[in-house]
């Protein structure tokens, strides 16, 4: 895959909150304009019925063109899966509005991401968009076979793939399961916990942003906050949202606190003051290379803000 170096810095900007907006809902599209989400995912897939596809494509094209300034909020589009006949027409329509990225549902493996990369290259040429600048977020765990093909992402995947998330809802249907959480709790059950861990691990292995899955109980703020905390503890850097009210909770959870930033700055400083040191002590605790990496990650999380 070609490296798109001029854009790599920009591509690394960390997005904390990604709000799904049904692509055929004028009201929700309007409503999301001043929502504080770092990115919107304008949906052409599951939130839009079969009979509304063409309407939604036209609406999103207009919406994207109307919102050409993306400095406060990025605009991404979720297309239909690569194996559906709708995907290419979705892309042909929305690329005219130059979205920041494409959210790809139900990829079977990295091959689907790479095929999307080729389509995007052709459409960028048609639209006069700089090559390689349209990014990809993959929802990598929506089918059973995808779970068994995570290794393909390590064998060479498009540089456009800058974020990976996971989905428990479609996977639940694919597995013939009746629920994805342990009854009476918010804890994911076996196969779904596995999917979450695979997505997180794979994203880290290929150095892209791991994004936590949706929390569907959208009136339960405490439950969402707890899940965000767990996601962040495990290494996710942001989370998908389905309702506007979820966004401030997600933004807060994925923004390092002042104490965390202060600790991180002190860790970086002490390593800079002691060049060549592998292990040091701070506040009576041992610090070594993993802590330095952690500290740098906190500083990146705190500074890579759109607004
Ligand atoms: N994006 C933008 N605005 C949204 C929104 C969203 N995802 N979800 C709700 N809103 C708006 C509503 O239109 C409403 O505004 P209004 O009062 O001006 O009409 C306001 O926020 C409050 O909404 P509320 O009444 O609490 O929710 P609802 O019952 O209208 O909608 C859902 C609930 C789940 C249907 C809705 O949140 C939704 O469509 N979510 C996205 C679903 C989706 O994209 N799924 C695919 C990805 S998993
Ligand atoms: Mg889905």
Give a written overview of the molecule.
The chain is α/β, with parallel strands linked by helices and 307 residues long. The chain folds into 2 domains: 8-255, TIM Barrel (Alpha-Beta Barrel); 259-303, no CATH class. It contains 12 helices and 10 strands. It has an 8-stranded parallel beta barrel with strand order 1-2-3-4-5-6-7-8, surrounded by 5 helices. Helix 9 (221-234) links the parallel strand 7 and strand 8. Helix 9 packs parallel to helix 10 and helix 11 (258-273) crosses helix 12 (289-303). Mean pLDDT is 94; it is low at 1-7. It binds coenzyme A and magnesium ion (MG). Residues 19-22, 27-28, 31-32, 43, 46-47, 214, 218, 242-244 line the site of coenzyme A.
């Amino acid at each position: 895959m070609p490296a798109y170096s001029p854009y790599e810095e920009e591509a690394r900007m960390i997005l904390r909150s990604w709000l799904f907006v049904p692509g055929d809902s004028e009201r929700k599209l309007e409503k999301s304009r001043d929502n504080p989400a770092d990115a919107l995912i304008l949906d052409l897939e599951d939130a839009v019925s079969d009979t509304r596809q063409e309407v939604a494509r036209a609406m999103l094209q207009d919406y994207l063109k109307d919102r050409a300034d993306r400095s406060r909020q990025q605009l991404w589009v979720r297309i239909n899966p690569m194996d559906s006949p709708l995907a290419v027409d979705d892309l042909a329509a929305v690329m005219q509005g130059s979205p920041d990225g494409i959210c790809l549902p139900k990829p079977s493996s990295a091959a689907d991401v790479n095929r999307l990369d080729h389509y995007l290259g052709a459409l960028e040429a048609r639209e006069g968009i700089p090559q390689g600048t349209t990014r990809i977020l993959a929802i990598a765990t929506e089918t059973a076979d995808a779970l068994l093909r995570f290794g393909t992402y390590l064998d060479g995947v498009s540089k456009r793939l800058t974020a990976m998330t996971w989905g428990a809802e479609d996977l639940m249907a694919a597995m013939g399961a009746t629920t994805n959480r342990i009854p009476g709790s918010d804890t994911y059950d076996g196969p779904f916990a596995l999917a979450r861990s695979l997505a997180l691990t794979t994203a880290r292995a290929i150095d892209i942003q791991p994004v936590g899955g949706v929390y569907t109980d959208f009136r339960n703020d405490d439950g969402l906050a707890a899940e965000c905390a767990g996601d962040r503890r495990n290494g996710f850097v942001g989370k998908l949202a389905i309702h506007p009210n979820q966004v401030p909770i997600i933004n807060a959870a994925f923004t390092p606190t002042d104490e965390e930033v202060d600790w991180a700055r002190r860790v970086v400083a002490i390593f800079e003051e002691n060049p060549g040191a592998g292990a040091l002590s701070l506040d009576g605790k041992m610090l070594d290379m993993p802590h330095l990496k952690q500290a740098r990650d906190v500083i990146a999380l705190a500074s890579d803000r759109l607004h």
